[in-house]
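anyone else get weird line breaks when pasting these?? whatever heres mine. first is seq + tokens for prot A
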Amino acid sequence: MKIPPRAPERGVRIAGTGSYAPPRLLTNDDLAQMVNTSDEWIQQRTGIKRRHICDPNQESTITMAQAAIEQAMEMGDIDPGTIDLVMLGTTTPEMACPSTAARLAARIGATPAGAFDLTAACCGFLYAMNMADSIIRAGRANRIAVIGADAMSTVMDYEDRTCSILFGDAAGAAILEPDEDPSRGSVYQTMHADGEGWASLYIPRQEAQLVEGDDPDLVKMGCLRMNGREVYKFAVTRFQTAIKDALEATELAPEDVGTYICHQSNARIIESAIEKLGLPPERVLINIDEYGNTAAGSVGLCLDELLRGNRIDAGKPTLMVAFGGGMTWSSSVWCH
């Protein structure tokens, strides 16, 4: 049996990024007309002012993902025919079968690239980035398209204040490829989950899936359910632990990191981490005021905003962290 030679040691670089958020806005005042809330109440607790929402007649997870990855291909001058794998992190796929990633690959001309959806809630993009980095380092692929996209408005009950005030729609994308410098790319990464806490954030499809305490007469099937108090406790703890562990594992001090890219779930959670961990606040992007929580789209959206704004210090590592339903949490220390 002939065994192919091992791939030479190599690093990974980001060849291009892109993002998309629908032009349609849903403001806090708009929500106040739909549910018992107010702009002041929402801003005080979350930092959110508005969120972008798909036009159901024209936009969806796949259209947002396509817009984001096409931007990334344009930035990197990438021929879609050279893409080996398309990985789409999403909680809102177009359908169960086929995967949205397979249809996306066909739309952008990446066929016959491998393609699959990855379900890790708000960690979807970062899980995919970590996996793509490892696959490229192993020599199993040379160019991978990574997308995080969620049309959260399609799973919202806008009569439920707990969830509806938080989420928006968006997509973020990156194209990864090999680099001759093995020190580039993800030098430290984690992907974790604890399914014991699944009931704190879930989307029931039928009455039998409801957790104790959820009234079937009040629950809209196919819509997100959230135990806000439990999710907040989990997020605060795991978010800070993920950052602290990544810094300790790489022997980095908070000021050694050039940019912190955090999943945008709640501005108060990010602000708490800045204070308790001593992070330089000017290096931590907070854009949740404009977009809300865009789930799997969040980290990729932030990455693209920072790169296009020349706001990433390439001379220092970038630390990306995310957490979401599952419950899941993830991190990646990236060297440019």
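and prot B, same format (seq, then tokens)
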Amino acid sequence: MITHLEGKLVEKNPTNVIIDCNGVGYFINISLHTFSQISDREHLKLYTYLQVREDSHSLYGFSSKTEREIFKLLISVSGIGANTARTMLSSLTPDQVKEGIASGDVGLIQSVKGIGAKTAQRVIIDLKDKVLKVYGIDELSLVPNNTNKDEALSALDVLGFNKKQSEKVVDRIIKAQPNALVEQIIKEALKNL
């Protein structure tokens, strides 16, 4: 019903904003990602999603159409409500959510507060095909990083390092250097373990 709002920014908080559109103030729930994208300028445009429930009408605002579409996909999953979807988009960027789902990274989705292993798996099972199709992500393009990560973790395991600790260090390295070779990942990990 309401697809976007454009007007004067009246109030800005980490979880919501108030936008004045021709004398009407709209209270809009936002994610921390959107909060970080909003500058303090007076004029603001947010893409919105109106959630209608028996007891309330809630408006959710997003800095980009992509973030709004990911929000809509997330709330389509059984067990994921609007607040949980907003928490996901506050903890992870829309691209991280999209790539996490596309690559089947249960650990990444589960890292969000309030999401357990079963819910994370359900999100991936329900949305993986949609994300791959809608965003044109090629599954093969997701494999190299995972292969490098797996090989590095395997090597560190053979060397006797704790698997969970190794995984945290390797994830940090891959985040900083997405195109790092297996040897580079292992060398960096050994410096940090």
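btw re prot B: The beta strands are 4-12, 16-21, 24-30, 43-52, 57-62. The mean pLDDT is 86.
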